Amino acid sequence: MVKDFSNADIGKMYREEYAQALTALGRFNLAIFGKTGTGKSTLVNAIFGDDVAATGTGRPVTMGLDYYVHPDGVLGIYDSRGFETGEAGDRILAALSDLVEGTRQAAAIEQIHAAWYTVRWSDRRFEDHQASFVRRLHDLGLPVIFVLTQVPRNVDGRIHAEAIEFAEYIAGLGLPLAAGARVYLTNAKPDPFLGTVVFGLQELLDATFETIPDAATAALSAAQQLDWGRKRQASKKIITASAASALATGATPIPFSDAAILVPLQIGMIAKLTAAYGSRMGSAQLASLVGSLMMASGATTAGRWMVSSLLRVVPGGQPAAMVISGSVAASMTTAMGWAWVAVLEKYLMTGQDQDIEAIRKVFIEEFRKRFKLSRPNKPELPSGR
Hints:
The protein is α/β, with parallel strands linked by helices. The chain has 14 helices and nine strands.
């Protein structure tokens, strides 16, 4: 008989699996340049959901250039702090040259994957030294995406004509830019008084995905908090792979008493999904939450919870005589994965209060719905918790 798991067992298992999932994602490193006041921090916050400089750990690279790593480790930001002219600019470029050369053969987590060069549209000028800085970034081997910031666009979709003209001027300079050599017009902060709206961020994010190496895309997908469609695509792959493993595990039907054999697989799936979404909830809190969900419904062990609450597919059946086939194990795992995605999107990614009862209700309801959809010709799950 396979041992059942306690809440503490599940919490420990989750923490270990989550740490491994974050390591597997790697890190996306972005260098961002531009004068003070171009809105670099606002742009980063709008796409990645956090002020990385405030929440992460930082270290100076050289005077005027700092490197910050988000607490979960999947996002690194090189921030120039706006000092890119004269000696300061030369010093930054020299440090970047050493960094790029020193990491050229290193793991992807050590490399800079993309650079955003930001200019505030209202400056209405782009000087020779700025163009030279962009060219030198390109010479270092960094793909540079040009971002025009704080561009006004109203609710009708009209962009300020002078901003468009300025972007066309920059595009006509022949700078060695990545992502189709476009200038990306953006506004990361709405202004209700002026009637300006947020726009251009998805296009910038898409351009960044197109520019970076494949080794950094999973980390960027996890770090960004703008495009949940990409997170769902990543989730689908994780859930499909986990369901395939559950199917293989159940190739020889699993006795009821051994149902807990699926728990490590499903905890691993939940940890990978959480990492893929970049949940802002702390690892310890998440471990406690996952343990509470797996031990829900008044059951004393995870194995009994899974079967008594979720796998009673034979009305009136005797649990001791039941077995879990590969298809049931795969269906249950699939349903559990999408139920956890629902929890992530409704509670853990939105800043809503983490009410365990509300979260548990969403999880169970979504599980039952998904399990029923995956087994349309089978008996329904019981209506009770």
